[in-house]
Amino acid sequence: MKFKHVLRKSINLDAIYLDYNATVPFPESALKDLEIALKKGIGNPSSLHAHGRSSRRLINIATEALASFSDCDAEFVYWTSGASEANSWAVHSAIETTVYKKINRKAKILVSSIEHESVHMAAKYHASRGVEVVEIPVNLQGVADLDFLKNLLERDANWDLISLMHANNETGVIQPVAEMVSLAKRFGIATHVDAVQTLGKIPFSVKMLGATYTTFSAHKVGGFKGVGALVVQGEGRILTPLVHGKQQKSLRGGTENPVGTFVFGKILEKMKSGEIQTPALLQTWRDEFEQKLKAAVPGVHIHGEKAQRLPNTSYVGFEGTDGDGVLVNLDLEGFSASSGSACTSGSIDPSQVLLAMGCDKAIARSSIRISSGRETKQSDYDALLGVLPGIIERVRKKRTYS
Amino acid sequence: MTNSAIPTQAGAGVGKRVLVAMSGGVDSAVAAALLKVQGYEVIGVHMQLWDHSEQNIKKSGGSCCSVVDANDARRVCDELEMPYYVVNARDQFQADVVDYFVGEYLQARTPNPCVMCNNKLKFSYLIKKADELKCQYVATGHYAKVIHDYSSGEAHLCKASDHSKDQSYFLFGLKQEQLARSLMPLGDLLKSNVRKIAETFKLPVADKKDSQEICFIDEGYQDFVEKRATEMYRPGGPIISIDGQLIGRHRGLFRYTIGQKKGLGLDDAKYHDHFVVGVRKDDNALIVGPEAELYKKSVLIDQCNWIAKTDFRKGVRATAKIRSRHEEAACTITLQNNNSALVEFDEPQRAITPGQAMVFYQSDVVIGGGWIYSLAEPIEIGGYARSSSFSAKKPDTGSLSTS
Prior knowledge:
The structure holds two protein chains of two kinds. Chain A is α/β, with parallel strands linked by helices.
């Protein structure tokens, strides 16, 4: 192929990675574990022979690791193809409760307006099938309005699920999930907490929190894409299969992934022991970056700035720009950031999370998310500060929208 | 003159960054590959113009989110290892193309949305995007040639070598400053070669079918317009024969175009060989007549754009296309002002249609064009001349000037 060498120019993987909320790079120290898993995870974990047992053992190790790290009962851990499946499964199961318990009314669920789209789209699907879905609003800082929830529950306590994520993936705003769960318990309502963004970022205990359903994802801590878990606990827990088959007590069919699951478990072990760490000063760097950015560029909006946030996340709108222009320029300059809400096509629609926070549509459209993590250095933030003002100025001058 | 769009020498594009408009089809994919071979730093951009989800649901029965073309373009860019971005231009497309399209039909004109899309989206919106991304050029997979004369700074728009695929008609609205920033690498290639090149590069869209017709319309255009305008904007009215007889009723002028014969619903067999020849705005009438009435020689155009430096002090001889699939015919252009002109064909032309673009050529060079406003002579109904929509308002006539 004559031109192949001209066309082949390797994708720039030296770019500074600032998209940890999308996914976290595989930690090198887990390479050894991956090698072990590839050697030992050959058999089908459902098989009775030695190869099968070996694979099963890998999964058991991972289950114990997740249970230990997140403080839950290993018995209640179910492995899934990822967090989206776990979220869909939680919504599905809660809705099936009415069928199980022969409750003679249509199913009713409450979901916050800032849930991950897997929750939103599942809710939308069920709504089209007659399920009543009500959204819990958020305030201007992106925090779920529990007064609204309380008032609602006091008038009508017949709900089958309340779903509120632990920390929002776009804004990083931490949600009052503990209050939500205790409120729900008072009324005997099942709860779902999507803890994908908080695992390893803020310490918490699944048992103490007490949500009926808790969602985890492996790749948000550096494991493989395609591995997630749903932890189901507490009184009156219901789990109705979404994927059918005999695996995992006939509740979640499909051959488990011994390699991906094991590696996830090992990463959690390393995080627990401190072998894998996030820079202690990450939040300081992030805060300094935001202050310097505001000083250097006029018209900067930091979403959820006054709320309690994850230490690694900045979600920033730049007046008079469209977010894709800024992102594309950053990509070309060697920075991997994100719009926070990419449609499958990759185009930018204004973030539903920001709109739910009452953010102006144009500002929402202009917003980009910068999320840091393990490999981030303060110099990465400095380098970003070196190019951002220039890009913003150029995009503002040449802006396509007027 | 150098035709910078053709890979005559490797390295022509070194140090230059170009934005390629990637539709997801084979043409733009090959354009990107060729530019990459020439050494350009190539960035692929796909414009989301229209939400096809409604159409797709109907077609596939599923709830797909219509990203097939965007994904095809992404696969091509991944294959060529070039950055790829999707931009959301739906609002612009709605305002500049869809609203225009519906509006023209409601005024009983026959629009050409592709020309408008080139003017307003591909070569305006995308050039601004190119500025944002520090790209010197915008490239497309159009079959046309842009020849940059670096000595005079002038750009020339010419027909593609593959005349059967030529798309220069759709590009007449480009200004010099837009052409100066444009590359059309397929201008010298035959379509069959383009497919071969796509196969050579193993581009995943090598066998993809060419797109046809208007990209945002799936149903008949009549249904599309009807859905977007209340009845008050598209009233029914009389059908009148050229000899002045009331011979039927129509259900809104937007349903008809000049030269149409089918679907008139006329009872009287006497009129079964009649065609739509015009409309009369005064009483919202549709005028029908025998085929001979379709042939006209003189026409007024407005919103002209002149690409080539042309001396208009005398009538200019050229050939003209009155619609995209029209065989060019010889004519004389007399400028009325920079914006409008009188065009007189040597031979009468069939079905000159207001709202369509008229594009002028001197051999293979596009000298410019305009939008058909009306016939120069009003059609005569019932033996006496009455103002028809064609001449409801004459375009401004101003001082004669050259550009």
